[in-house]
Amino acid sequence: MKQSDLLALLGSPVTDPGLTLFFEERRLSPPQSIPVMKPNSTTPLSIKNSVGIHDKEWGFSYYFRSELLNENFPVIKAGKNYIPYFSQIIFDGKLYQKRERKEPPGFWDASPSPEGDMETITNYFGKFDTNRKYPQQRTSYNSQVEIIVTLLSEESRINGYFAQIKETDELLHQSEFDLKKSNQVHLYAMLIKWLFDNRYLKVSNQSSSVELGYNTPEVLQFIQGSLNGHLWEDQLVADPQLHKFMLDSINGKADFEMKFYELWGKLDHYESLDWEAQKQWTAAISFNEETYAIFYAALNRSFEEYKKS
Questions:
Q1: In whole angstroms, how far apart are CA 252 and each of 19, 42, 257?
Q2: What is the rounded CA–CA span in Å between residue 11 and residue 21?
Q3: Is the pLDDT of residue 232 over 60?
Q4: Distance CA 41, CA 62 (A)
Q5: What Å distances lie between residue 127 and 2, 90, 134, 136, 304, CA to CA?
Q6: Quick check: helix, strand or coil at residue 161?
Q7: CA angle 122, 238, 258 (to 5 degrees)
Q8: Helices assigned H by DSSP within the chain
């Protein structure tokens, strides 16, 4: 077994015969399923629906996730559970420095051994910003897998070394487009239409040739059919400023929602309400041609101001 053989298993569901054979040889038992989490869970996606096992002999850890932010790995449902994917290998961590390595001789055939000198590590991964306490570099191993190294600058040694399935950032989870769970469905539907109207979404030619109406049901149907029910960063066109704007907007750092209420002449009213009343008022916003025209202008203005900041 070499590193490249192990990396080739990343992305395999636990039902894959090759993956099953590997863990049988390692005398380890990967999880066969993971219970479904509620879609409105506030647990970060990176840790929910996940299980890890430790290979004490080699000193590696293997992680499995049933949800990956990568369209090439759709959720596999089995009854009330999800079938997990082999998603991450931790080759090295700061505690691992204290134990003797026992991986097979000649194992490191894809990237340098963690025991290699810093010149070898840097030549492979690139220069690290040692002004930071934990500088990180990542390299693409193939179309689906990346290898990542983190340094501890003050000791000039590796602090973390792992390989994982490439993922994008989730902007809006599918629950945000659920009329029963989200009080901002109409706002997010207008946001999707704004992205669509400005040709900011990566969709098929057939999807881009239609015209989205001024109503939530039609936009929700488009989201299900063309965006797989969610909005991920890699569904946006290649525009770094747009990506930053959307990430900051969703995280509340570039609040287009307030810009919309201001241009609509309703910001003072919104701010006069308590939190519960704000939710109810937002949920009652009507998505129609008149409202969307204000929203469209507000978001255009917000984006232009963001690009100048």
A1: 41, 16, 9
A2: 15
A3: yes
A4: 24
A5: 26, 21, 13, 9, 34
A6: strand
A7: 110
A8: 3-7, 17-25, 118-125, 185-197, 205-208, 216-226, 240-250, 256-264, 267-272, 275-283, 289-308
Coil, strand or helix at 276: helix
- Enter the pTM of the model: 0.80
Q: Is the dihedral of CA 199, 200, 205, 211 positive or negative?
A: negative
- Give 134-169 pLDDT, tens digit per residue: 999 999 999 999 999 998 877 778 888 999 999 998
The total of other beta-carbon atoms located within 10 Å of residue 110's CB is 18
Separation of alpha carbons 226 and 201, rounded Å: 10
Residues, the chain, total? 309
Do 172 and 250 form a contact (C-beta atoms < 8 A)?
yes
Is 202 within 8 Å of 227 (Cβ atoms)?
no
